[in-house]
Amino acid sequence: MADAVIASPVEDAVPKRQRLVFLRNTKSLIGLGIFAFFVLMAIVGPWVAPYDPNKTRPQDAMQGPSGAHLLGTTQTGQDIFSQVLVGARGVMMIGFISGIVATAVAIVIGVSAGYFGGWRDEILSMLSNVFLVIPQIVLMIIIVATVPNAGWTTVTVVIALTGWAWGARVMRAQTLSLAHRDFVEAARANGEKNWRIIFFEIMPNLTAIITSTFINTVIAAILGLVTLSFLGLVPVNSYNWGTILYWAQSSGAFLQGAWWWFVPAGLCVALLGTSLALINFGIDEFVNPRLRNTGMNAGRLRKLGIRPRVGFTPVVRAKVRRHHEAR
Hints:
Blueprint: E1 4-7, H1 10-13, H2 26-48, H3 80-116, H4 118-133, H5 136-146, H6 152-161, H7 165-178, H8 182-189, H9 194-202, H10 207-230, H11 241-250, H12 253-256, H13 259-287, H14 289-296, H15 298-303, E2 315-318, H16 323-326
Antiparallel strand pairs: 1-2
Helix pairs in contact: 2-3, 2-13, 3-4, 3-6, 3-7, 3-10, 4-7, 7-10, 8-9, 10-11, 10-13, 11-13, 13-14
């Protein structure tokens, strides 16, 4: 007899109760592992750095990686490994502080516009559209270049205040959907105040979007900081990975083939951004019902002979034997 297709829902192939489901996702595990490494580097980096990153050693100038200098030295003999370790703290602190501030601004503007509507929605939406139209990096460069003696505080504020628009737009759209749900209408009918409805009815349903927005904002803030540092628009004497690239470019490391000067810092930026992106993918697969069973249990489903496909019911091809063959 010909092969038959027997539908088997994903829920039958996976356990009913799942604990720490998010941590079972491969993307999440890899992302969290890489991210934890950089957090540890940011915490202990300045303490375990083998050399003072600012100290020059002319006798060790432009040396490649060796036992004495794991990542080589600069044209003045500064240890690049120490600079990378010390620079991790600045990148993490400014990136996350900027991400927190930008996410807070996005929540206030996006939720207010979506919930209250009317003229307030039009004004806040117009403000968001203005910031969306203007390229973020160009706006940051103009502001930082205009402000005299721009320090880290100025850079952090500029990055935060230019990175909220996209998150506000997403949260406005979701709030518009939630504002007319039955549970919100019931809260209004019971006489609940607006602030209580926002904080206790709408905000809990925006947790996944807020988390995703925060991660994306942190990625954008880190890239913005590195870009501003590479262009020399921030204090270049306080090391971060962007200032390492700035000194490498201004000293001709690219032309001299001194790859050990710019590759480690660039690789750190890429790995940190990748780790945050993987965590974001894991969150998406955790909160999206269409992706949850397939993404979080792909390995288990393959072992059971089920081919995971998003948007379709997974099927198992099994041979239907005749009754006398079963005997």
